[in-house]
Amino acid sequence: MLTKRIIPCLDIKDGQTVKGVNFVSLKSVGDPVELAGAYSAQGADELVFLDISATLEGRKAFPELVARIARHINIPFTVGGGISTAEDASVLLRAGADKVSVNSAAVRNPDLIREIASRFGSQCVVLAIDARNVDGTWRVTTHGGSRFSDRELFSWAREAEGLGAGEILFTSMDHDGTCQGYACDVYRELSRILDIPVIASGGAGTAGHIIEVLSPEGGCADAALAASVFHYGRILIPDLKRQIAGHGIPVRL
């Protein structure tokens, strides 16, 4: 079993880290540069930065903020938000990102995945998928979860892998911010049908939830992404990792 990763997520709006429930009722939870530095020091394996309003506002992510964060951390750094061309990805990679996350623009133009992967390598491309369960079907959404697309989660994930995505970051919109646990059955199925890593996002409330989604008996995810529980200090990353290791799940201590 490969080493599992713990990934704090910085959802950014107007230059501040925010968090809500199901992507709405957003509240500021701190300065992204300070939070990023703290998570890096605590032993996070990676960091994800998502400019959650960039697509809705029709703009690009802020490369200046990306550069400031990159200077304060020494862990892999994924940036998403408003990326619609390979050149957009290039700007963020030059600013200090190690990977870019594409979402709405890739749903509209799947070749974007191939273009970025061809130019920078699959290891740089994370496909973020936000979806809701509608009558038993996981329907992919765009624009921060505000619009339904005609795509279905599992078929879209397989297509993206074929186009060159290096990882899948799936957020259950039904679970996001609820702190009630991850959609483990969905991550288990994604892990079964894909050969690339799966990052679980949406629903972490306790260390037990994270252990469950990473375990082979639970979600089988390769990494767990969380926000609220880290931002509010409910879970400290060193303590979490010791608990994960105590359950026989390999993790970097």
Strand order of the largest sheet: 1-4-5-6-7-10-11-12
Number of strands: 12
Task: Please give the CATH class.
Answer: Alpha Beta
Number of domains: 1
Major beta sheet summary: 8 strands, parallel, barrel
What helical percentage do the residues reach?
25-40%
Which residues sit in consecutive blocks of at least 5 with pLDDT less than 50?
Answer: none
Radius of gyration: 16 Å
Looking at the overall shape, the CATH architecture is Alpha-Beta Barrel
The fold-level CATH name is TIM Barrel
Number of helices: 10
What is the end-to-end distance? Answer: 16 Å
Structural class: alpha/beta
Mean pLDDT score? 92
| Percent range for β-strand residues | 25-35%
H/E element order: EEEHEHEHEHHEEEHEHEHEHH
Morphology = globular
What is the CATH homology-level superfamily? Aldolase class I
List the helices and strands and how they pair.
Layout: E1 5-13, E2 16-21, E3 24-30, H1 32-42, E4 47-51, H2 63-70, E5 77-80, H3 86-95, E6 99-102, H4 104-108, H5 111-120, E7 125-134, E8 137-142, E9 147-152, H6 153-163, E10 167-172, H7 184-193, E11 198-201, H8 207-214, E12 223-226, H9 228-231, H10 237-246
Parallel strand pairs: 1-4, 1-12, 4-5, 5-6, 6-7, 7-10, 10-11, 11-12
Antiparallel strand pairs: 1-2, 2-3, 7-8, 8-9
Key features of this structure:
TIM Barrel; 253 residues; single chain; eight-stranded parallel beta barrel
What does this structure look like?
The protein is 34% helix and 28% strand. The chain has helices at residues 32-42, 63-70, 86-95, 104-108, 111-120, 153-163, 184-193, 207-214, 228-231, 237-246; strands at residues 5-13, 16-21, 24-30, 47-51, 77-80, 99-102, 125-134, 137-142, 147-152, 167-172, 198-201, 223-226. The mean pLDDT is 92. It has ten helices and twelve strands. The protein has one domain: TIM Barrel (Alpha-Beta Barrel). By secondary structure, the protein is of the alpha/beta class. An eight-stranded parallel barrel has the order 1-4-5-6-7-10-11-12, surrounded by six helices. The protein starts with a strand and ends in a 7-residue tail after the last helix. It is globular, with a radius of gyration of 16 Å.
